Amino acid sequence: MNTDKEFLKQQLSQQGIEVDDKDLSYVQRVLSIIDEGAEQLGEFPDVEDQSIMLTMDLGVLNDD
Amino acid sequence: MMTNLTYLSAAELAPKIEAGEVSPVELTEQFLDRIDKIDDTIKSYITVTPEKAREQARKAEEEIKNGNYKGKLHGIPVGIKDTYQTEGVLSTSGSALFEGYIPDESSTVVTKIEEAGGIVLGKLNMHSLGPGSAGINPAYGTTRNPWNTDYICGGSSSGSSASLAAGLATVVTGTDMWGSLRVPAAMTGVYGLKPTQGLVSSAANIPTSETLDQTGPQGRYVTDVGILLQEMAGYDPKDIKSEDIELPDYTGDLDKGIKGLKIGIPSYYRQGLDEDVEKLFNESVEKLKDLGAEVKDIEVPELKLAKYAGLVTATSEAGANYYSSLKTNLDKIAQDVRGFLLAGSVLTGTQYIRAQKARRKLVMGLKKAFEDVDVILGPTIPITTPKFDEENWEDQAIDVVEKVLPFTVPANLAGIPAFSVPMGLDSKGLPTGMQFFGKNFTEKQLLQIGKAWETTDPIDYNQVEVNN
Q1: Is residue A43 less than 8 Å (CB to CB) from chain B?
Q2: What's the Cα-to-Cα distance from B53 to each of B59, B61, B198, B228, B232, rounded to whole Å?
Q3: Neighbours of B294 (CB within 10 A)
Q4: pLDDT per residue over B49-103, tens digit each?
């Protein structure tokens, strides 16, 4: 994930959200945690084959 | 020794109230007096509603005197998390964003509690807007841990748990997006139940992440959790997630015991534990065996997907819910929460869908695990409760989420129930917790397990700092 501050600032600005450097530091921090989590996806190559219910993936243990 | 009524359980109070031995009016006054005396320090309430509480207490007393006892919640003082909208009462979800917001209707759960005769004491503090696990709140004050006020008490249902530990409510409501009922329950030594998605209505609650959010009860005692759940649960056509199922009696047959219960502990829940947590967890497992449970180690490798799936889902959905506010009122959103919401706004649709696919994979892993065991067990959180770092609260708020979310969010992702129970005190004298995950709609079984666990006396509220 691209976590360069200028890139993130531009992404947000294009949506009409104006942020300062401190905001961007915390966005970077959260995205880096997400990135760490994403590293686990590599252990499960069939994740992309999973079907999902787009509207509400709820009560999913109950679907049998 | 505690002799006042504020630490009595709802289960003890109910028959006394029905018999006229305890007056709901006197009981309510004891709570209002105690809130007045100590809540400036704890900051468990954002809004106290003394007049409304007194009116409800007088009405309850009159109804009971006239032979119209409604049930175990009738005349019992209840605290309501500030995410639940309440007619005519400030409802802020713990954020300056909702400053001055007074709804003209109550959430379904608040209405149900009031119809059951519960006395609403006020609105409970929380981690601002919900995406946080520390209970830090720059707008209304950070809730302090009643066991030691130098420490945080967890979140987001911080005021809920703290009010229980401090004897400022008999039972309380909370919500749980990535652990918000369970994290503060663990840090304050109370019981917190995240129900199955759809068991309890979320209608007219201020949302954070709709597919993860779940409303639920907390109590100091297991039966109390059942008493409140009984009144909170049930089908609600106003809530798209609501499930129409027949409700069991959540307070009946709770003494069934756990002989022969098959408990699985994923290796995932034995990794990265603080030393005290590991020690107390191992001791707890031995106690569960002594109670008759069959405990075995299991593998659920898909749990590793929880951090990614949980954070992407939560930040994307919460970011969407507050999209307009990010453009126009950013300064009213707490700095740490801003970090999560803004991160959600830069994630792509592809990442959200990948997270849902990871979520599905995790669900299938849990489903397979439940073929061999009745419940899954792990520490509620891997860390002991940290001191409040007032100077660097934004960093601390994110640190705590990073550490605890992987342990708690699997239940939210899968929609399954999870019950956090006290696990004893760490070496600093702060509570710890462990959580049982069940299959969908097995809340009664989780309460039975909790009731068996309660016989080991896992917590003693006489040791709470504010009582000494």
Answers
A1: yes
A2: 10, 12, 29, 18, 19
A3: 15
A4: 999 999 999 999 999 999 999 999 999 999 999 999 999 999 999 999 999 999 9
